[in-house]
Automatic annotation (TrEMBL):
Transmembrane intervals: none
Species name: Mucilaginibacter ginsenosidivorans
Domain (Deacetylase PdaC) ranges: 54-153
Superkingdom: Bacteria
Source lineage: Bacteria, Pseudomonadati, Bacteroidota, Sphingobacteriia, Sphingobacteriales
UniProtKB keywords: Signal
Identification of the protein by name: DUF3298 and DUF4163 domain-containing protein
Presence of the UniProt keyword Signal in the record: yes
Keyword Signal attributed: yes
Signal peptide: 1-22
Annotated ranges, domain DUF3298: 173-249
Length: 267
């Protein structure tokens, strides 16, 4: 996700959670919140920031929703944020440690590279509620990092949460057994059309294993379909950015389980 757009999403949802008023009627996308949440912020600034604004010095900042009395959901959100960025062999144990270590990493780098005094690093992560209704919450994880390389790095991930079962929704929870290949085939057809590839065109210019189209496990449940997202470098060069692929329910209705959290969207 574009960093500026990611920041805009954070601001919008932060204002919403503070007011906690009933959502305005905006048509098909309007939903009724069933779990109360507020946004929390963990932030660390480098010691050399002084009076500089966050946009002009090294800052590590994480914004995320907190759901009272929902430990499993809260733990899942924090875990995804920790996985979204870490510098060692494994994710950090807390968001406080994650932001502290990022600042320590910056301090170490500036000590080694004193000839670049005007360079500052950025870690900006967020988890935002995309949609919520009586049985489903979807969240988007965004992370932007710049740590001294040629360019920054963006990452976007998702959490689809079954509020009744109190668990993350896996693809197998909504897809009927044995239909994985059928889903992949439909997705490939959509991908070829989107990328303007012929039915027999090669995937040479993409980073699919064995040059064969494949779906990843990074998907968002939406009212109109399942949206898969490939991050930078996943299937294309950095310059191509992220790739989103929507599979409308109308194309895969026969492949889906009945009586699931997405049944409300199936017509």
């Amino acid at each position: 996700m574009n960093r500026r757009l990611s920041l805009l999403v954070v601001v919008i949802f932060s204002l919403y959670s503070c007011h906690r008023s009933a959502p305005k009627n905006s048509g098909a996308t309007t939903t009724k919140d069933t779990l109360v949440y507020t946004y929390k912020v963990v932030k660390q600034r480098a010691s050399d920031c002084g009076d500089k604004p966050d946009t002009s010095c090294t800052v590590a900042k994480v914004t995320y929703p907190f759901f009272p009395d929902q430990k499993v959901l809260n733990d899942t959100v924090v875990k995804r944020l920790l996985i979204a960025y870490y510098t060692g062999d494994k994710p950090d144990s807390s968001l406080q440690q994650q932001t502290q270590k990022f600042i320590q990493f910056y301090n170490y780098d500036t000590t080694r590279n004193a000839d670049h005094p005007n360079v500052f690093y950025t870690l900006e992560s967020s988890a935002t509620v995309v949609r919520q209704d009586s049985s489903l919450i979807t969240l988007q994880i965004d992370r932007y990092t710049y740590d001294g390389g040629a360019h920054g790095s963006d990452y976007t991930g998702f959490i689809n949460w079954d509020t009744g079962a109190n668990k993350k929704i896996e693809l197998g929870d909504i897809l009927s057994p044995g239909n994985e290949e059928n889903l992949r085939a439909i997705a490939e057809k959509n991908f070829r059309k989107q990328e303007k590839l012929s039915d027999t065109g090669s995937f040479t210019n993409y980073s699919f294993k064995g040059r064969k189209f494949a779906l990843n496990n990074n998907f968002l449940v939406t009212p109109i379909g399942i949206s898969f997202l490939y991050n930078e470098y996943e299937i294309k060069p950095y310059s191509e950015g992220q790739t989103t692929l929507l599979i409308p329910y109308m194309q895969i209705k026969s492949l889906l389980r009945t009586n699931t959290v997405i049944s409300q969207y199936i017509r």
